[in-house]
Amino acid sequence: MKSILLSLSLICGLLISQNSIGQKKKSAVAPLTFNPVNRPKNLSDTALLELVQKQTFRYFWEFGHPVSGMARERSNVAFDYGDEVVTTGGTGFGIMAMIVAAERGWVPRDSVSKRLLKMVKFLSKADHYHGIFPHWLNGGTGKIIPFGRKDDGGDLVESSFLFQGLICAKQYFKGENDTERDLRNRITWIWEEAEWDWYTRGNPDQLFWHWSPNNGWAMNFELRGYNETLITYIMAASSPRYPITAQVYNKCWAQSDHFKNGKEFYGVKLPLGFDFGGPLFFAHYSFLGLDPRKLKDQYADYWEQNVNHTMINYKHCVANPGKFKGYGENSWGLTASDTFDGYNAFSPTNDFGTITPTAALSSFPYAPQQSMKALRHFYDDLGDKIWSEYGFTDAFNESQNWYAKSHLAIDQGPIIVMIENYRTGLLWKLFMSSPDVQNGLKKLNFESPALKTISKN
């Protein structure tokens, strides 16, 4: 379980787990015209999906940092930091959420493009390490906020989440007005300056998560699968100037004691990963833009992988071997989140009764009927306790009579994006249309219907 313990979300949680309740400060961004106090009732499925997406989007639009526009790490003060902490990976998720907002008309397209341009201008001057951004930045100054004693440099995984969003923005904002043209050009510049190959340390069989000018390679954490970092390899292979080779993918990512599985859990076969699949964010973070439908390589069919991972998670909650209060067909979903005693990366093998809404809601493409049942329960039955101005709060544990008041960018973003992919496939279409991404996928010998026609845009 070492990979889970060292994974992005759990590291984050361990750092900020205790004494994390604080007061939110409003940003200067104009709010959407919606009253969160009144929770509409008797909504159709379509209307409820739209409402949840739009309400959750407020986290990124209203609560985004007023100087940089970047996504704040969380809605409550934690780990002795305040509202200055912005997250690069969560910002990538937020960028994709803003594309959804522009497409659905929640805010004007030109308002979104201007906001994104402000963010990209900020990133162009922010601290970076061989073109790779750190996990946390100060949203006002662009200076690094260390994520740990030795984690004070580039974070390859967080940066891959960020670039996944930026690539989608580049593909979406194709207008010939000055703002959209400037936005595309600046994204291209930042994207092409990222030195993914630096993080191999010159070894074609390795890829590392961190590098610091002060501590070098001291973190010493190789990216070995199967977990949330598949997208890191896709982005690294897709780089037009500093790409990795397929050898790194096959010799590092695919060489792990928790890569191949093939066993059955609750009667469902799991091609890759830890027994019982691990936390559900493995099926979300890499696939916000990367389209898993008929996506295959020599190791797996990734649609099968994600659907089966989701169903194992669901069936575990229905079986409820821990006899936790509130579990069932309409209340399921184990992933990394806040909990009653801090933060943890929950899964069937690490289950203490905490349900996290993003787990089921971000799984809409994989288990639409089961996800809709969960959505109805979360909204209709538990809404008085977990519905807020920024959508659903992070988690709840009915055995402990605990309901979070917090929101995390990395949990809110996938709800908006994956519901949209379920509804229209928007972000999947945008990301897969990128010529650089297509080249990267081909380099790693992936198969996908999206690779049959290379975008000329």
Automatic annotation (TrEMBL):
Question: Which InterPro entries does the annotation name?
Answer: Glycoamylase-like_cons_dom, UCP028431
Q: What is this protein called?
A: Beta-glucosidase
Specify the superkingdom: Bacteria
Give every Glycoamylase-like domain span.
220-435
